[in-house]
Design brief:
Layout lengths: L11 E4 L3 E2 L10 H14 L5 E6 L4 E6 L1 H9 L1 H6 L3 E6 L4 H14 L5 H13 L4 H8 L3 H11 L17
Parallel strand pairs: 2-4, 3-5
Antiparallel strand pairs: 1-5, 3-4
């Protein structure tokens, strides 16, 4: 019996023009998170490949997971140019039902952010001297969200000796 090897060990660079979205992905990402994803890919590069199914008769790769990473490549000129239009992809070979299930598993497995941990992160960044603007830009928060996390944390030192103003744009 052949030993199983996960698809991630076979990442390939695919011209983004050969990649197509599936019609069954219920996942949506709000504009602020899309901006953060674009920043993340710009700052860190693609750190996770997209998951696709190869359709040989069309010479296309249908997305199973990674639609938003794909969308960033399609909409961000700077990333498209830096990556030379090549999207990192792993290929799985499953029928449509199993591809749909895989899409949902990928989406649901990502989970959500825990409020308490996000408060702790905001607190630690503030204590480390990071400005509100820096936190908003690099963590992908808007002014109201940052203020809520600071208020929830209840840590007075976050506001001590600082003029807290949310009027500046990042």
């Amino acid at each position: 019996m052949e030993e199983y090897k996960s698809p991630v060990y076979h990442v390939i660079a695919v011209p983004v023009e050969k990649v197509v979205a599936n019609t069954y992905n219920p996942n949506v990402v709000a504009p602020p998170e899309m901006k953060l994803l674009e920043l993340s890919i710009w700052e860190d590069g693609y750190t996770m490949p997209c998951v696709c199914y190869y359709i040989p008769e069309k010479d296309q790769y249908e997305l199973v997971d990674g639609f938003h990473r794909y969308k960033v490549m399609k909409t961000s000129q700077r990333i498209y140019e830096r990556e030379k239009g090549l999207l990192p992809v792993v290929v799985i070979d499953k029928d449509i039902s199993n591809r749909m299930a895989s899409t949902i598993r990928h989406n649901r497995a990502r989970g959500t952010h825990c409020v308490e941990l996000m408060c702790e992160i905001v607190s630690e960044l503030s204590k480390a001297g990071m400005s509100d603007s820096w936190i908003m830009k690099n963590i992908g928060m808007d002014k109201d969200e940052l203020l809520r996390y600071k208020q929830i944390s209840g840590l007075a030192e976050l506001f001590a000796d600082k003029e807290f103003s949310l009027t500046k744009e990042i």
